[in-house]
Amino acid sequence: MPKTVRNVYDSCLSFEELLKAHKMARRGKREKVEVIIFELNLESELLKLVDELKHGKYKTGKYRTFKIYEPKERVIQALPYRDRVVHQWYVENFMKPYFVPQFIETSYAGIINRGMHKAAKNVKTAMLKLNKELEEYYILKMDVTKYFANIDKKILWEILKRKIKDKKLLWLTREILLSTEGMKGLPLGNYTSQMFANIYLNEIDQYAKHMLKCKYYYRYMDDIVILCKNKEEAKERLQKLTVFLEEKLKLTFNSKTRIFKNTQGVNFCGYKINSNVIKIRNSSKYRMKRKLKGYTKLLKSGKITLPEIQRSIAGWLGYVKHADSDGLLKSMFYIEG
Fold first, then answer.
1. pTM, to two decimals
2. Span 135-166, pLDDT tens digits
3. CA dist., res. 336 & res. 23, Å (int)
4. Residue of 98, 182, 289, 314 with fewest CB within 10 Å of its CB?
5. How far is Cα 3 from Cα 116, in angstroms, rounded to an integer?
6. 228, 139 in Cβ contact below 8 A?
7. What angle in degrees, to the nearest 10, is found between the helix axes of 81-90 and 42-54?
8. CA gap 115, 1 in Å, rounded
9. What DSSP state is assigned to residue 154?
10. Angle CA(151)–CA(157)–CA(162) in degrees, nearest 5?
11. pLDDT above 80 (res 319)
12. Beta carbons within 8 Å of 225's beta carbon, 6+ residues apart
């Protein structure tokens, strides 16, 4: 994989590539009105995007802002569907091929064949291994304060520029970064935001693995777990990582960051993990129970569709099946785990 990205923009820009991006962007959203309208004029819409992107005339559309309340209150900024097609094309053709290969093996978010389930299982495996080597060890658990809202666009731009040397790709990158006001924060609703956020914290991943030599280091977005031989090692790593995060990335760790004994297990990727078992956290159980109670009412009022309910339940079951959850599945759905 080349160290820099050069002369790739035009070779990846075609009707066929944008059609592929559209098919990926519409997954799970085919019944949405804006997707249906886009597909009614699919050829002309895609050809227009090709022309705009080719000649530097593309401008990001207007964001729609709304709130979601599960698992906690968050402000979502969503773009028109045509912009989501562009973002899909951008990430699949430029971010994933050129940036993902430089990520460490224990960074899990938004990467094919990794994800939160593999992250949880790998942490459990590492804990089991250390249990055999040490009578006692310590876990350093770190969370970044309001991560997406505090990402510094100037720093992110400099990180991206180190690798991107294609002028047209830099133009589009700048257009995406500056599509929201201010120089702090990435919009939660953008497909590009997760990738940008991953690239941003790759800086601390590289520092932890190659400078601090953290053998048991795991990250899923802004959630970081490090297994340490003793409490002194955990304290030293926390201090150095805190300084690096503040000085290099203008971020801080939040109050959930702490050090504790291995016997307590660790909350990571939505699971409660120790060396013997992976359990579903109580908060996740309660959220799904509330959702199940409310689905009938929402369906009758037309605020949700049956396919949306089915996807929601299927997604949760996919998450649960990676834990030791037979009893939970039987009690909630009367099915075998």
1. 0.86
2. 899 999 999 999 999 999 999 999 999 999 99
3. 34
4. 182
5. 28
6. yes
7. 60
8. 23
9. H
10. 130
11. no
12. 123, 139, 140, 141, 142, 217, 218, 219, 266, 268
